[in-house]
């Protein structure tokens, strides 16, 4: 069910008893795996150790905002330090990891958590940790863009292994579904599909709801991504049956690795809100089910992190697998992009006519 | 794991003891399910009974071709008659159902099986059965296009419920992987992404390898398909871990139903051939693992038909679910097609430059 990597199930890797003990003591899930590629004659293996962090909030949503943020910073620092000790080279945090996922409330005070992508407190923490561990950190935050009229964006800031900000990507597709009133808070991203060339490989970031959009995944692939992260925040009742399908499909269709991350825990807010589903007003957002996992271009995947616990998932990815699978299956070569460029060009015109062949006998 | 449809697992439906007994006697798998949609105020439910047929070959590949074809025709007639008795309104057969999947051999004599899409023997059989049962039949064959210099195509002919040919679709994406030497035999289709408006709904056909191409699925969606069939022929070693992922992802991403059909059985050929994998020459193509299933836009799906037996899978699909899910999730509205039209337009140019942001500190 989890596929085969070089003819075998994806293998578990030990990170040693010390890290396992400290994860158990601090009550977060820690798992590690290895994806292999076939040996090549002209290229050495390109193995990168990659980590995914899923976290809950660590102070009640009624606490002062500065305490709420600090509590999450402290927890994430602890897990990122463990990742550093485990030799992780590229790490991705979850969507808006530094705050409660308050968009269910439609209250605007929560935008106080939005911060500068380049100089805000969460980016500063990530820069410090990136420098300390020589690690690339993908830092998905709520961004306040002061230079453009206080526009709010949902942004992933990519911090290089020298602690510098390499660049950022803004979430392309914004949901209007259930309690995900995100279009109330921020706009469709304007940064395209950038691929960040880091010391450890080319990475892209498909933020949350973008995982439902196959062309969003494809955009990062066309720009050369070898690993695409999907930092998310989604709840069980809405999306859990889709969760094992979409990131894995993206890894297959685009011949790259995917690291899918989901927030964890149940977040309760001070004021009751309705959910547009006829049910009484309530104060919680449902359960963020965690279950972060890696998927590979050969259709193999790791097991998931826990449904109800913070966690760190580590995987060694031999990036050579991407080109090997591309050459084996030929999806890029056979994709007929010209046909689709033409189709989409027609589709977006107001006078688009669908290609429908009606049964003439009806 | 198979998701939830209107809050419950997809329900099994009984087709009655007589059909079950005749399926058991004739040794084919028979299963039936029902997908529901929420009641609406302004539209009645639009329930269509849809069937998928998976079949093995029924004469050895050493038999005279006319006998091979007749043996399959006889078997498929038996199963289609059962589908008719079960009240199936739209039925899809598997890819190149009328012949062994001989493309592993790279021998050209097998193209004798190619036939006229409009007037060949397999289309004639489907027209007869469509008229008899008042049923739409999707008839995927190897097509010989005499009018265009004997071009061979991999084609799905859509036969209306009055026995007329509504039109055809030619496979858009042709594999060059493993023993699937299909590019040796036929070319990329030239029929776009037609949607066939039948008496029972709007259908599209994504033939086999096209399931790996998200934009191919999308093309049928943009043209208005409510059910897209994926008649396939694929073997276990190559693709089995992908099989439950891709069609299901397509149903989710495009807010339509998918009927995924795979050939069944192991086909052995007269002359040994190699597979480009360093192994000795051999005479069989591996195991076609059947496992046909339906997937719905709400991420639910049916169990699969058997891995090693012919089969008929029936499902009642309330087509209202497509629009309901489209309105709930909003994937079409949030898809930003203009951005992708522009991206693909750039990508297909020779001077395309990927959007790469290189870490300036490296």
Largest interface, counted by CB within 8 Å of the partner chain's CB? A-B, 75 and 76 residues
Quote the CATH topology of chain A. Nitrilase/N-carbamoyl-D-aminoacid amidohydrolase
Count the strands of chain A? 16
| Low-pLDDT sequence parts of chain A | none
Q: List the domain count of chain A as a whole number.
A: 1
Content-based structural category of chain A: alpha/beta
> Which strand-content bin applies to the residues of chain A?
25-35%
Quaternary structure classification: homodimer
CATH level-two architecture of chain A: 4-Layer Sandwich
Counted by DSSP, the helix tally of chain A is: 8
Structure write-up:
The structure is a homodimer. Chain A is an alpha/beta fold. The first copy, chain A, has one domain (about 25-325): Carbon-nitrogen hydrolase (Nitrilase/N-carbamoyl-D-aminoacid amidohydrolase, 4-Layer Sandwich). Chain A has 8 helices and 16 strands. Chain A has an 8-stranded mixed sheet, sandwiched between helices. In chain A, strand 5 (about 135-145) and strand 6 (about 150-160) form a beta hairpin. In chain A, helix 2 (about 65-85) runs parallel beside helix 3 (about 120-135). Chain A is globular. The N and C termini of chain A lie far apart (about 45 Å). In chain A, about 60% of the residues are buried.
Blueprint (SSEs and pairs):
Two copies of one chain form a homodimer.
Chain A lengths: L10 E2 L4 H9 L3 E7 L11 E8 L10 H21 L4 E3 L28 H13 L2 E10 L5 E9 L5 E6 L24 E4 L2 E5 L8 H9 L4 E6 L3 H4 L3 H12 L2 E6 L1 E10 L8 E8 L3 E3 L15 E8 L1 H10 L7 H11 L8 E3 L4
Parallel strand pairs in A: 2-15, 3-4, 4-5, 9-10, 10-11
Antiparallel strand pairs in A: 1-2, 3-15, 5-6, 6-7, 8-9, 11-14, 12-13
Helix pairs in contact in A: 2-3
